[in-house]
């Protein structure tokens, strides 16, 4: 057992909205027994906000409060954290980082289905085209622990579940 992470590894799943973080993260939690944390949902429940973004018509995340709220859960390990950003988490929190990637046409349809329109829809597509979250992850964490995963089809989902489940098993065997 790893004395720093008695409950297992911490896995970050990040990527543009609509790339499939919640779908993957929730199923992964079922398969691995790790604790699933959806940062967006947590922020909503606990109102971890700091003002209102008039351009995007959404509340602004209070990142410090998110960290305070999660610190005691994340420190002992054993978590899957899902969020569409990654540069404000402490680097020491994560043992591995997965960045989900989706082709533009597929992402466009998924975001439309989620009710995204206009500037919000276009900006999220741009975010994926410019690999914004991938670059954020590579800039924020050791490159060796950052992995890009295709997330277009149900076969991709299965492959990603297998890959991460195997990684978690190996981590547990070697710690
Ligand atoms: P996110 O949490 O990144 O915003 P989501 O998990 O809510 O994304 O997924 C958005 C939609 O896409 C949802 O209808 C499920 C679907 N989806 C997710 N991953 C997929 C995959 N690998 N193949 C096909 N559809 C997928």
From TrEMBL:
Catalyzed reaction equations: AMP + ATP = 2 ADP; ATP + H2O = ADP + phosphate + H(+)
Binding-site positions, ATP: 18, 20-23
Domain of life assignment: Eukaryota
InterPro entries in the cross-refs: Adenyl_kinase_AK6, P-loop_NTPase
Stretch list, region NMPbind: 38-61
Molecular function, one GO term: ATP binding
Stretches that traverse the bilayer: none
Residue span of region LID: 113-123
Keywords: ATP-binding, Cytoplasm, Kinase, Nucleotide-binding, Nucleus, Ribosome biogenesis, rRNA processing, Transferase
Quaternary structure and partners: Monomer and homodimer. Interacts with small ribosomal subunit protein uS11. Not a structural component of 43S pre-ribosomes, but transiently interacts with them by binding to uS11.
Name used for this protein in its record: Adenylate kinase isoenzyme 6 homolog
